[in-house]
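Side project, low priority. Logging it here so it doesn't get lost.
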Amino acid sequence: MPGGDSPGVGSSRRGAQRVPCNLDDLEDRLVEGAVVALRADFNVPLNRSGIGESRGAEGTVRVSDASRIERTLPSIDRLVAAGARVVILSHLGRPGGRSDSAFTLAPVARCLDGLLTAPAGFVPHAAGSRVKRAVQAAKPGSVTLLENTRFLPGETANATALASDWATWADHFVLDAFGTAHRAHASTCGLPRAVRAKGGMAVAGRLVERELAVFADALDEPCRPFVAVIGGAKISGKIDVIEALLPKVDALLVGGAMANTFFLAMGMETGASLVEAEKKEVATGVLETAGARLVLPVDCVTAPAIRAGASARIVERTGIPADEAVGDIGPVSVRLFGQYLADAATVVWNGPMGVFEVDEFARGTVQVARMAADAADRGATVIVGGGDSAAASRAAGVAPRISHISTGGGASLELLAGRELPGVAALSGRRCRGDT
C-alpha cells in the first residue's frame, strides 16, 4: 500500500458501547393488540409537476423516490404480522414548526399504502385529541401515518409536553429513522424516553439495527487495510471525524474544499478557493499527528469561477493560480487515491472530492465512486456515508455495487466521530459491545 506503514491499531476498539434493544426483543406477546409508535424517515423527494392544474394540487404530488419508505417496510411488516396497531411518525422538509401544505405527508401516505399488503391510513394531524381518537379506532394489524411532525413547534425543541402527548397512546416505540437519530427531537428522543418511563419498550427497527451494526463492525474491528475517504467543503465540519479516524485507519484520503485548508497550512497558494483560514492551526496539528497516513491531493482542477461552462484546467497543488479556485481533485490524485482503494479491505467514504454537481468538477468524485465500487467487487467492505456521497454513487451508476449506503449523512458523521446518537441513547439497552 502506498504511503508508509500501517499505524498498527488492529486492536483499537472503542470502549464498551451500549447496544440498544431491537425488534427481536419486542416479543409478539408484547406487540399483539398494542399501539407501537414507529419513527420513520419519510423525508422523501416529491414530484410536484402539475400543481395548480384543474386536477388539484394534492392529487398531482407524487413520491419520486420511495427507497427510504421501502427500507422501513421490514420493520412495519414485522409489527403488522404480530398484530400491532402501528402508528408512524415522520417529518418532511423544514416547515418551521407550522402547518404548510407544501410539506404534507399525504402523498407519502398514498405511496405507503401502495407498498404495504395492509392498508395504510392517514391522519391529517400530528398530535392532540384527533390523533388519539384515530389511534383508539385502529385495529390490530393496521398502519396509520400521522401528519408531518415538524408542523409542531415542539418537535425540534424536544418539548416534553409533545412527547408526553404522543406517549399517552403509545405502548411501545420503534426507531427506524437513522437519518434523524442524531437529532434530539421530540419524536426521536423525547417520545422513546416517555414510553420507557410508563413501562413500555423502545427498540431499534431493522434499518437502524443494520446501520449501527455496519458502522460498529467497520470502526471496531475493520478488515485491513482500512481506508477512509473524507471530502466536503469545510474542515470545521469534519475535524472531529478526521481526528477520531486517524488512530484507526491505515490511510485517510482527503478531498474537496477542505483539502485547501491543509494546503494553506503547508504554505501553499490557494488562490480564490474556499479556505478556512481560521482553521490553519488545526490543520497544521492534524498534519503533524497524521504523518504519512494523511493523503492529500497532488493536483487540482481550477477555474476563474466554479460554475457550469467554466474554463477549467489541471494544475499541481503547488501551482494554484492566485486568481482561480479549486473545484476538484486532478487526475494524478485520482490515480493516487485509486492505489489505496485497490488495496483496501475496508473503505468508509463521506463527502465529495469537488463540486460534483457541476460537470466540469465532477470527475474526481465520480471516479472515487467507481473505484470504491471496484473495491467492493473485489470483496472489500465499502460503506458510503449518505448525503452527497450517496448521491454521487447513484449518479455514477455504481450504487448497487456498494456494500452499504447509509440513509443518514449527519448520523453517519456522528458515528464516525465516535459519538452516540441521541435517538439511539434514548432506546432500551440490551447489552454492551466489548463487555466481558
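Brief comment: Confidence is low (pLDDT under 50) at residues 3-16, 51-58, 432-436.
Revisit when time allows.
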